[in-house]
Amino acid sequence: MSAPGNTAVLHIATPEGVTFSLPLAGPVTRALALMVDVAVCQAIQQILFIAVKVMSVFAEDMAGGAAYLIMFLIAFGYSSVCELLFGGQTLGKRIVGIRVMDERGLRLLPGQVIVRNLLRVVDMFPVFYAVGGVFALFSKRCQRLGDLAAGTVVVRTVKVIPPDVESVLGGKYNSFRQHPHLEARLRQKTLPEEAQLALAALVRRDELETEAAIKLFGEMVQRFREKVKFPEETEHGLTDEQYVRNAVDTLYRKAGG
Amino acid sequence: MILDLAHFIKRERPHWKDLEKALDAIQAQRLDLSDLKASRRVLSLFQRACSDLARIGASNAEPELRTYLETLVGRGYAEIHSSGRRAHRFTPLKWFLHTLPQTFRRHIGAFGVSVLTTVVGMFVGGVLLVAAPEGREVALAPFPHVAKQTPSQRVAEEEKNAKSSAEHLERSKASFSGMLMQHNTKVSISTLALGLSYGVGTAISLFYNGVILGAVCLDYILDGQIVFLIGWLLPHGSFEIPAILIAGQAGFVLARALIGWGTREGLRTRMREVTPDLATLIGGVALMLVWAGFVEAFFSQYHEPVLPYWVKIAFGSLEFAVLVAFYAFCGRKSEPGKEVRP
């Protein structure tokens, strides 16, 4: 269940024969979201209490009744209503970047949302979600008791923009193409992980510090040169980044393409 | 490398974008999967994305692209494979008249355990009351105002001050009602949630309620104040006590699913099966407690001479008869073999 970097991951196999994985939110992330939600509930409560105070001038008894109901509805209703209306997210969860979902990857049902939130009373026992926190720590799917009972998990929402691979690979001159036999040797000797690393470095080059980028591309070039030595005139004038770009183009292009 | 990544992305990206748009439309309810043409198109796009993910997975391509495709396939999977889940659209009236009483009857055994636990508690409460002089104080500890007087003293006082009490109550009915609803619903939710302790917590909660109820009832009966007791408790108790018992029923349903008694299904399957029933039962409990809160604040606390006891008893009996009839007979026609769920 654990992926590299000790991130708990939920693997779901579809009937189409594909397995996809979703990163699970840990207890710390969830605690942060909870803190935000507590603050939001307090703020809503304070605003409504101002309205209740105004109401008490005209109808003191009704205002008292309303105050009890407001406290109760916010305590038990806030999370359920938000999760039902906003795709498994409360405001805290949205800010932190997590959401509740069915443990089989399906849409949440209202019953699941209600049950997971009602069972908070046990997860909160005795203080500060001690029971729920301990269960989430030791659960494979980071589930508190409410999640276990309702069949839900909390996953991290990941950004869904496709990477700009084309700007790295598409339409640029590659001097290595003049030597198909050397390209073939490079493809043969390069491990898939090395190719993946080189591509990732190019895609994320703008996110790297200048010095770190220079060092990284330098090391990669050295590694590729150990595998295949291209003629000097082919490499002439190429920066390390351009060298890696050529290598990646070679690796991710069909032979003869 | 097997995959020509740049060409692959250039060729497939339009299809991914189409799938994204279709999924957005489904979520915004602009696209209905019950439309055969639309569902075929979405399914075809989804299967194409699945196939792309499989190819990417096999070729160790760029991890960010894999994450993107996994998210896309995850979204598609949730929408396409959950379409059956949306078929049962929630209709409050259907839920109230069919689902709630049917769910109650489906778990009638758990309700029996709930009643039995409370009755045992009531018996122990009665024994505590008569066995030792300090037993009364122990059993009635949560209600010091009841414990400090004998029932006869309280009845005399209530009837003597009936008019002034009624006037006082007139000014605090709504807040009293709100407080009762809040408190009783919290107790019910705890009783349900404690089912997670394999039912032990639920049983303790019901037993404790039974001890108090038994002690109060026997205290009034032994003091000859049966009419006052029934007139006081029946109007709101006819809903409040069954509500707590149904919360206990839900707690025992949860406990049974945890233990896995009488089934070979795995824990997750068992829990999945009872989740809608738990939500339904606690929804019914909440409705009953809202009604009981209103009745207790607006009706139960008025005593003779302001409100004759026979009126209170008749009203309470009628409520109880309606409640029993509702849970026993409502939704019977649609019950056999065709479950109605929200």
> Percent helix among the residues of chain A?
55-70%
Q: Helicity of chain B, in percent?
A: over 70%
Q: Could you tell me how far the N terminus lies from the C terminus of chain A, measured between alpha carbons in angstroms?
A: 39 Å
Mind telling me the C-alpha Rg of chain A? 27 Å
Low-confidence stretches of chain B: none
Most residues in contact: chain pair: A-B, 70 and 75 residues
Computed CA radius of gyration of chain B, to the nearest angstrom? 29 Å
Structure report:
- The complex is a heterodimer of chains A (257) and B (342).
- Chain A is mainly alpha-helical.
- Chain A is built from 13 helices and five strands.
- Chain A has helices spanning 27-58, 60-85, 91-96, 110-118, 120-123, 130-138, 145-150, 166-169, 180-189, 192-203, 210-227, 232-235, 240-251, and strands at 2-3, 7-13, 19-23, 98-102, 152-156.
- Chain A has a three-stranded antiparallel β-sheet, with no helix packed on it.
- In chain A, α10 (192-203) crosses α13.
- The longest helix of chain A is centred in the N-terminal third of the chain and has 32 residues, at 27-58.
- Residues 1-5 of chain A have low confidence and may be disordered.
- With 342 residues, chain B is an all-alpha fold.
- Helix content of chain B is 78%, strand content 0%.
- Chain B contains 14 helices and no strands.
- In chain B, α12 (226-259) packs parallel to α14 (309-329).
- Chain B is elongated.
- The two termini of chain B are 51 Å apart.
- The mean pLDDT of chain B is 87.
